[in-house]
Design a protein that fits this description.
Helix content: over 70%
Distance between the termini: 150 Å
Number of strands: 0
Radius of gyration: 66 Å
Organism: Microbacterium galbum
Order of helices and strands: HHH
Membrane topology: Single-pass membrane protein
Structural class: mainly alpha
Subcellular location: Cell membrane
Strand content: under 5%
Family: Belongs to the ATPase B chain family.
Function: Component of the F(0) channel, it forms part of the peripheral stalk, linking F(1) to F(0).
Shape: rod-shaped
């Protein structure tokens, strides 16, 4: 365009030429360049662009299919997880119930064991008390008998050496003493 203006300025002033209309040789060369560019785009660029778009389309469709498959697998895994969780909760409830029952059994057994142990200890203590009572009674009788014989001998003024007679007197005295205690109760 600049070239056309320069040539227009160089032309003689007598010819009237419109500066907005290009010369014929510019139109022809522009048309040749345009046809070459169209041919190159059509034969080289368009097939490559079509191939690239087809590959991208296939990749996108493949990714969509993979995403759908992954979503199905995720849903299946979620269902499986939910089922396992429900099963685990049910088993936990059973275990908790079993532990509660076992705890009740253990407490009951412990109470029974404690009661039987207490009864055994009580019976043993009663037997020991009775044995100690009998021992104390025998010792008391012998000591009371000896004291009674000694006191009787001091009162009478002679010694009572007959053991059988002295034992009979002591036994009779103690029996009367026990009878008076029982009557008082």
């Amino acid at each position: 365009m600049l070239n056309a203006l320069v040539t227009l300025a160089a032309e003689p002033a007598g010819e009237a030429h419109n500066p907005l209309i290009p010369a014929w040789y510019d139109i022809i060369w522009s048309a040749v360049c345009f046809v070459v560019i169209i041919f190159v785009v059509w034969r080289v660029a368009l097939p490559r662009m079509a191939k690239l778009l087809d590959e991208r389309s296939a990749a996108i469709e493949g990714n969509i299919a993979k995403a759908d498959e992954a979503q199905r697998q995720a849903e299946a895994a979620l269902e499986e997880y939910t089922a396992q969780l429900a099963e685990a909760r049910r088993e936990a409830g059973e275990i908790r119930e079993s532990a509660t029952q076992d705890g009740r059994k253990i407490v009951a057994e412990a109470k029974e064991t404690a009661a039987s142990e207490a009864a055994r200890i009580t019976a043993s203590a009663h037997a020991q008390i009775e044995a100690e009572r009998q021992t104390a009674l025998v010792q008391l009788r012998s000591e009371v008998g000896t004291l009674a014989v000694d006191l009787a001998g001091n009162v009478i003024g002679e010694t009572l050496s007959d053991d059988a007679r002295a034992n009979a007197v002591v036994d009779r005295f103690l029996a009367e003493l026990e009878a008076s205690e029982k009557a008082a109760k």
